[in-house]
Amino acid sequence: MNSGTIRRLILTLATGYLTVFGVRQIPYEFQNEWLVLVPALILVYALTVWVEGKIFKDDALVMSKSNKPKPKPQISKAPKKGFGSD
Predict the structure, then answer these.
(1) CA angle, corner 38, sides to 36 and 43, nearest 5?
(2) Rg of the chain (C-alpha set)
(3) Which tops the pLDDT comparison, 19 or 73?
(4) Which of the two residues, 69 and 6, has the higher pLDDT score?
(5) Dist CA 75 CA 4 (whole Å)
(6) What region does 19 belong to: left with phi over 0, alpha with psi -120 to 50, or beta?
(7) What is the rounded distance in angstroms from the CA atom of residue 43 to the CA atom of residue 45?
(8) pTM > 0.85
(9) Per-residue pLDDT tens for 8-66?
(10) How many helices (H) and strands (E) does the chain have?
(11) What percent of the residues of the chain are helix, what percent strand, and what percent coil, each to the nearest 5?
């Protein structure tokens, strides 16, 4: 696992925990708490990924540049001989 994956995992776990804690602190009795938690966690995950992309976009550029495949050397082709050659 690279550092970006670990960083995103830690940020997602931390913000998810804070979301669950925050929803449980609301002084309202929900009939089904999951109907509030699931959309809140989805929203927090989307915001976390967006903010992480904005803050650490330089790391993503470095990773994408280093992961590019190197161009293969050009192989010189011998002149064609046989049917269809000019």
Answers:
(1) 100
(2) 26
(3) 19
(4) 6
(5) 38
(6) alpha
(7) 5
(8) no
(9) 889 999 999 999 999 999 898 889 889 999 999 999 999 998 988 888 876 655 555 65
(10) 3, 0
(11) 65, 0, 35
Per-residue DSSP letters for the chain?
A: --HHHHHHHHHHHHHHHHHHHHHHTSSS--S-THHHHHHHHHHHHHHHHHHHHHHTHHHHHHHHHHTSPPPPPPPPPPPP-STT--
Q: How far apart are CA 62 and CA 51, in angstroms?
A: 18
Position 43, amino acid: L
The residue assigned the tokens 């540049």 is: 65
Report which of 22, 6, 17 is spatially closest to residue 59, judged by C-alpha positions: 6
58, two tokens = 């330089």
